Amino acid sequence: xxxxxxxxxxxxxxxxxxxxxxxxxxxxxxxxxxxxxxxxxxxxxxxxxxxxxxxxxxxxxxxxxxxxxxxxxxxxxxxxxxxxxxxxxxxxxxxxxxxxxxxxxxxxxxxxxxxxxxxxxxxxxxxxxxxxxxxxxxxxxxxxxxxxxxxxxxxxxxxxxxxxxxxxxxxxxxxxxxxxxxxxxxxxxxxxxxxxxxxxxxxxxxxxxxxxxxxxxxxxxxxxxxxxxxxxxxxxxxxxxxxxxxxxxxxxxxxxxxxxxxxxxxxxxxxxxxxxxxxxxxxxxxxxxxxxxxxxxxxxxxxxxxxxxxxxxxxxxxxxxxxxxxxxxxxxxxxxxxxxxxxxxxxxxxxxxxxxxxxxxxxxxxxxxxxxxxxxxxxxxxxxxxxxxxxxxxxxxxxxxxxxxxxxxxxxxxxxxxxxxxxxxxxxxxxxxxxxxxxxxxxxxxxxxxxxxxxxxxxxxxxxxxxxxxxxxxxxxxxxxxxxxxxxxxxxxxxxxxxxxxxxxxxxxxxxxxxxxxxxxxxxxxxxxxxxxxxxxxxxxxxxxxxxxxxxxxxxxxxxxxxxxxxxxxxxxxxxxxxxxxxxxxxxxxxxxxxxxxxxxxxxxxxxxxxxxxxxxxxxxxxxxxxxxxxxxxxxxxxxxxxxxxxxxxxxxxxxxxxxxxxxxxxxxxxxxxxxxxxxxxxxxxxxxxxxxxxxxxxxxxxxxxxxxxxxxxxxxxxxxxxxxxxxxxxxxxxxxxxxxxxxxxxxxxxxxxxxxxxxxxxxxxxxxxxxxxxxxxxxxxxxxxxxxxxxxxxxxxxxxxxxxxxxxxxxxxxxxxxxxxxxxxxxxxxxxxxxxxxxxxxxxxxxxxxxxxxxxxxxxxxxxxxxxxxxxxxxxxxxxxxxxxxxxxxxxxxxxxxxxxxxxxxxxxxxxxxxxxxxxxxxxxxxxxxxxxxxxxxx
Length: 940
Ligand SMILES: Cc1ncc(COP(=O)(O)O)c(C=O)c1O
Fold this sequence. Notes:
The chain is an alpha/beta fold. Among the domains are: about 1-155, no CATH class; about 160-325, Response regulator (Rossmann fold); about 325-375, no CATH class; about 665-815, Aspartate Aminotransferase, domain 1 (Alpha-Beta Complex); about 845-940, Ornithine Decarboxylase, Chain A, domain 4 (Alpha-Beta Complex). The strands form seven sheets. Strands 6-15-14-13-11-7-8-21 form an eight-stranded mixed β-sheet, sandwiched between helices. A five-stranded parallel β-sheet has the order 2-1-3-4-5, with helices on both faces. The longest helix is centred in the C-terminal third of the chain and has 38 residues, at about 650-685. Bound molecules: pyridoxal-5'-phosphate. Pyridoxal-5'-phosphate binds near residues 440, 530 and 607.
């Protein structure tokens, strides 16, 4: 669907007549309406407006050019439904974007209808040039009209540009006045320029916030009305309704001087919910002083209408605050200053490189700036990561603002290190940590280092594609209830989950935390968001990030409604007479509510470098911990000191600072594009006759068992943003649309071969994750439309090759028949020496935790272990022995340990390992076999 449902009756309201106006060659126009074509297209709206907008303008240019080439055969335009569809879409879209506005599109429509093609062509060209960023005029500057010259000058202005939404029911005259005021206020010394987008209603304001990522601020004038007069697509209409629905009515003082206060606040809340980065201003006429008291918690400032200049300064200042990159600026400043180095780091200032006969290509390739920026100084403005007080401290504060955290810490050695820092900060030896067994290996290593007792949680398996999903909430609740039943709940300190998983399965952290806190109100949560940093910058994905969930939890626990609901629920959860908890089934069936005094202690670790702009290893830890300043900070500080290099890489830190600026300025645009391009890719695979014969894009139906989904659509974003939104609000798990798992059994080769021999070696296409029969394609904020087109082209070529009977024969001769992948083994158990005690009265009630650290150190002593080859190990297992692993065995993929120290090695583990075809297995030497703890050691 386009920006408008073009087959809606009023969509044809665009004028098709006109007098053509003066100037330009006038030809006979269309006296009748263009033929009604099939007007449905592109359901990605509003996620795809950015693409739709530029495609529509480009199409118009192409159509008019074709008209010229045809020698003026007007019927071409008259009968081209796409021209009229594009104009109708643009009429709505341009209302929500700065630059040309609705009137511009209407004028073009009138010109075309009136046969004035030359003038229409000029206007279309101006729009296209602006979108393409072209700054060179098509004709000599002397031939330009005054309007065109002004437009060109504006385009040539290279200052960064943003857009400001004005919500006000105003007349055409009022709009023109606002625009000319704006031009008058512009000053050559301003660092940025901005355009206004003026919309008359609350619905339009929300539609603009959803579709136009260039907006950085919004000025609300209380004169707006509620309902749009535009004809919106079903998707955009539903998304606008969703946005309004999810906003709670804001409490207003009963003595509000204006009855519009509530509406203004409601709109402000809706916009803040959608786009927290939008800076909100209120511009009012009367009663401004009393309004200021009632409204300022939402608005940065309240202005009077006459204070345009003040507003202008505020807008520029705010943009400057977002733009500010204190650490990057300090590095640049440092690079410019002359300095002598009488300390470490010979490369600094190019010292050991520039004069070298042998490594001159270092500078040639990377450029001198890299070496000028390298320094071991922590003085001046450069600051120390271990005790930041200046620019790094400020950069981290800005990152906390951008990511919605209370504190943010930069990490220069990846999320592998960030995870270890959080584990050490939170957990003491012998405390229990519940952790997804399929989590990244850094958690398992951290658990070993801290001496925690590890209780593995099992994710649901996806045996057909040989990987795991995520851990169902009821399994986590059940395990907590088991610890409570055994009287050991007080030992459980932390729950660690991966959100989202490598394969794109996303939890609902708010629900998980709420329900777990209802059983144990002081639990700490570590959300490994290594792959989810981008999610913060899109209104739908943001809701499932740890930081937003923590904030929402804090707000909810503070309400009277929650306290009342909590008290009611407790009556169902405990026997009123004995006070004993109701049976587990009751606790599992209820959506448990946490006590109002539960503590919110949430940590999120993110590999910024994986999904956003940062040099490799650039990562962050975000903290939302109510106990941070009352004790937890010290432990965190010590852990940070333990794992952080005293020579952190400054370029990584500067890139984190710059990446933060980027997401604050254009994060929404980039993430929207990332999701939309992923949809284009998956749709292309699903629709192309050859591709769909060879490849299958896995959907929620394949990746999430039905019991964890309430909504029905299996590729929600393909049906539009509102469908995705619905699934992301209601389903227990959802799939990140930017991850496309493609099943490749139809190719006859396995994932690893497909990745290396076909994609990389032949076509230079890099993917990371494969399983036996799947390949994971990911779009990210750097993905372009051309890259997606190239991938589709390559897949079509490959599909052709795999379907060519001659090629197939050759293939068969080379490829061994694919082995059947055994199901992924669940975590077997810790050996008795390291496992939890077996309850004498009921051995089946043994809890799953084990002591990784003791097993790890036992396994490191040479005299304690032996190496055993797989066939011998299998013989022992078949004889009823229970060999115990001395170390971690981690195949890549899947990238998590199949064996950990102290774990019993079972036939299932051996089957799985023998069927694995991965090239890289950490902790396993194919010549020597498995490292196994000697029986005598275990029995002693
Ligand atoms: C879920 C998860 N957590 C943590 C990491 C480690 O991140 P980094 O490579 O930034 O150390 C990875 C790496 O792939 C991962 O997939």
